[in-house]
Amino acid sequence: MGPPRFELGTTRSSAERSPSLSYGPASFYLNFISLFTYKYSPTFFILYMMEEEIKKAIDFVVSKNAGVRYADIRIEKGSATVIELRDDVLREMSYGIDQGVGVRVCYKNSWGFSSSNDIAFTRLKDTFEDAMNIGRALSLSASNKHAEAVKIAHSEPKKDYFKLKPKINPDDVSIEEKKRMVKEVHKAAKKHSPHIKTVSILYLDGYEEKIYADSDGSYIVMETPAVFMRVRTVARKGNVLQEGTESIGAVAGFEAIEEENPEVVGVKAADKAVRLLDADLPPPGEFTVIMDNKLAGVFMHEALGHSAEADHVLYGESILRGKLGEEIAYEGLTVADDPTIELSHGYYRYDDEGMKSKRTEIIKDGILVSYLHTRETAGRLEAIPTSNARAADYSEVPLVRMSNTVIEEGDWNFEDMREDMPFGIYAKGMRGGQVDTVRGEFQFSAEEAFLIEKGALSKRLKNVSLSGRTLDVLKNIDAVGKDKKRGSIGFCGKDGQEVPVSEYAPHVRVKKILVGGASS
Questions:
Q1: How far apart are CA 451 and CA 449, in angstroms?
Q2: Can you spell out the DSSP letters for 300-364?
Q3: pTM for this model (two decimals)
Q4: Residues 187-222: pLDDT tens digits?
Q5: For the segment 240-267, what is each residue's pLDDT rounded down to a tens digit?
Q6: Please, how many CA atoms are within 13 Å of residue 246, restricted to the half-sphere of its CB?
Q7: Measured between alpha carbons, how far is 67 from 109 in angstroms, rounded to an integer?
Q8: R_g over Cα of the chain
């Protein structure tokens, strides 16, 4: 969302270093430990050696250069399994390992960034020096003469070693067994109906080891597994095509896949596509709409969450700029960003600036109470960092990002929401759409929907689109359900980076929203 950027109002650039064949005694220890899988815990001695060498590299760039105000480093090693099956043909089945280091240096009022896939200790100083030289060069450029001062919010130094232990280590499940599972999911989806013409399955699992350290004194080691599976089906009847998609995923082990029953997930995706073949198109116009938990969650993520990202606010790209403390929504609406939800797809213990994850309320009882921040956006806006600095990997810079978007429960039953509706629409799931955070406008397509007549669900609808202005819709909410559950699971893109996210929400009713529909 929005134009490419690093952080706020500063000039910046990056450099990429080539691998080096230089290995010293200290680099041996890091490369040695990087070969460990999560079956083996690093010894205190090795961790101590790593910490000391990283501190030396940070001290080197900070103490030797008067213009350097701050520096941090992320060292990462990750492994991943990818299986992609389309129409019973394996398009990809791979296992890979990637490792590297990303370094930021704030020189006066400019950021420099450098990344490398060489994690040898003997090269860390070079990587820091690259970042510093970029920051120094940018600080002297004409375009930086009028840049606003970089303000980095205070953070107490943290030291931690966090390891999330899965019940079932994905590496203990052979790739052949994973392939068999994916094929069984395909078989179950295809067998569900003769109308199913295409079944595509993407399975991912991985494990990440990460070290974060900064010039404030933080040193954090993290080890986390993750799994994800998406099933996408296409059904056909005559000239009518409809799609059904289901996803599961979590920051957890293979047990998160098994517990969801993958074959059932495939059947759900297929059934959704088949159901829509005989559905009607929606009536056009403004109607009362009830959003299910999936659609309500994604709406809040896309329309509200991105507007609440403080870099958009500071760049003048958000309709929420200058509205802190104002009532912008239905008084019964509370929305939060919460990376602390265990076994969620958007979970993390620390963000990519070493901030301990925490729940942040964006809207509380209808009032805008906070934006989402990195340390710099918090410094610029004199706020408290919210642990929302996230980068796709070591080669990318941290941006303000969401994690799990949560709509807190209200006090309405779904039946009560419908009861006083003479005519309206019940919209479920999200198929796609777009949001303009500057103008505050959106257009979404629901996966499926139903007409509501005299409080009862009647005709099934397809190709339902919802559009309007974000602030109008927030004000037009008049009921929030007490049936919160997990909604969509996926990946959120911003400035070319994708990070895992999810939503948790109840049903939400909107008094008035524009509805349209396209022909099949």
A1: 7
A2: IIIIIITTTBHHHHHTT--TTTT-TTSB-S-TT--EEE-TT-TTSTT--SB-TTSPBP--EEEEE
A3: 0.89
A4: 999 999 999 999 999 999 999 999 999 999 999 999
A5: 999 999 999 999 999 999 999 999 999 9
A6: 19
A7: 9
A8: 24
